[in-house]
Amino acid sequence: NFAGLGDPEKYMKIAEQYVFDFLVIRYKGKPLTAATMLDWHQEARRFLESELEKPYAGKTVIVTHFPPSYQLCHKIHRGNELSPYFNSVCDELIMKYKPAAWFFGHTHAAVETNLYGTDFYCNQGGYPGETTDITGFNPNKLIKL
User: Fold this and answer.
1) Segments forming the whole domain that contains residue 83
2) Are 67 and 94 in contact (CB under 8 A)?
């Protein structure tokens, strides 16, 4: 949602200039825009919140593409002007609903931490050529809830 460093409009413009997705992806016959991405984020967030409002006796597990908190941004990317594109800010949603676990990707670095009482996991191989010493990927990772 482009809000990780504040000033979402500024970081939307930066993302459109430098993120490859905006150069190659087309939506409805036109280049993809940050405004469209933000609309998709808000729509997905409304859906997620409506599902979380429904009573459920079991453990709630969420899977998203992007990390749901800027606090989950890998330290080597924190503060980078493109990081607000790659990390959403949904902290209040996490605090309100307290899901048991949240799995996400897109960071190219393994993450396993707890934030606001929710366990967060990311275990991905990264780009071809990125090695496990860079990504922290564990091909044998097993998570029990």
Assistant:
1) 8-135
2) no
Is the pLDDT confidence value at 18 over 80? Answer: yes
Starting at the edge strand that comes first in sequence, how are the strands of the sheet with 101-103 ordered? 61-63, 101-103, 118-122, 111-115
Hey, which residues does 62 pair with through a beta bridge? 102
Give the amino acid at 81.
Answer: E
Number of domains, the chain? 1
Residue 145 forms part of a structural domain: no
Helix (H, G, I), strand (E, B), or coil: what is residue 100?
Answer: coil
Question: Tell me: the pLDDT tens digits for 34-49?
Answer: 999 999 999 999 999 9
Instruction: For residue range 81-101, list pLDDT tens digits in order.
Output: 999 999 999 999 999 999 999
